[in-house]
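As a warm-up, study this chain.
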Amino acid sequence: MAVYDANSEMDTKIVNFIGIGAHKCASTWLWSNLRAHDQVWVPPQKELHYFDRGAEYPSPCELRTESLANRLFGAGAPEAEWRKKAIRNLAGSAIRLDFERLNWWLKFYPRRLNDQWYLSLFKHRLGVLAGEITPAYSMLNVTDIQHLNALCPEVKILYAIRDPIDRAWSHVRYDAGLGKIKNLSDLDEVRRYIDGDALTRRGDYVTAVRNWLSVIPSDRLFIGFYDDIKLDALSFLTDLSDFLEIDVNGFPKQNISENVGVSRSKSMPIEIEIYLAKKYLTELEDLTGLVGGHSLGWLESARARLVNAD
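Now compare it with the structure written out below.
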């Protein structure tokens, strides 16, 4: 395990793990548990969005420009959002006299964005792993995965996935709560949103797995299932602990069963169930052969939905 050397120009082994999603697959729950583990350190901000800053990604990211001057004085919405968050986080930490967090925010905000900046956001002490979770990284193209892997050699990748039909509906409900969908009862609007770039790419597990495995060896990719988190969260964390080589007993028991990041409740209309089953049927057939596990049950469920529709 690498220990950060403050005298080194760029210690590229201080990032031990990165969570890449998927979106609406309990990534906030996972981040909450990891940050509570005594052998793990994660930044105070869950999603860093360093590697998906390119305009080709549908990520909500206020770090589009590398220049600090552009972020301070730019007129765009991302720059305005950056300034709002910078003021809130810097002032909040100062008011609370939380100097450790304030020091981190001072690294995060008033600097030019580059690889050295990214690595500076992580710290190490002996026996502690450091990492981050940004679900949008599942959408990275091969070139950006290669960049990440070159910057963070030996990094382990955590990828939790969920029945893509249920994930898509959870995504829809979540974004409706943010006002991105005006009317969940307008099925045509919901279908258009389902076929949008952001939702489609976040649910494309097959492309994500293939892209990552084209760059990193399979023993550095942990594929977990949302179903296992719901069925037996402790067992899921045990498997993850084995992968990361940390003690599962380091997770506080009160955190394990906590439900984090739940979208507002609304049942899926049968028309949308059928639409999603058709959309993901081929994907699920490919996924079953690629990762196995619960994906076989997801495939059978999609087929059953289509049979019942007939």
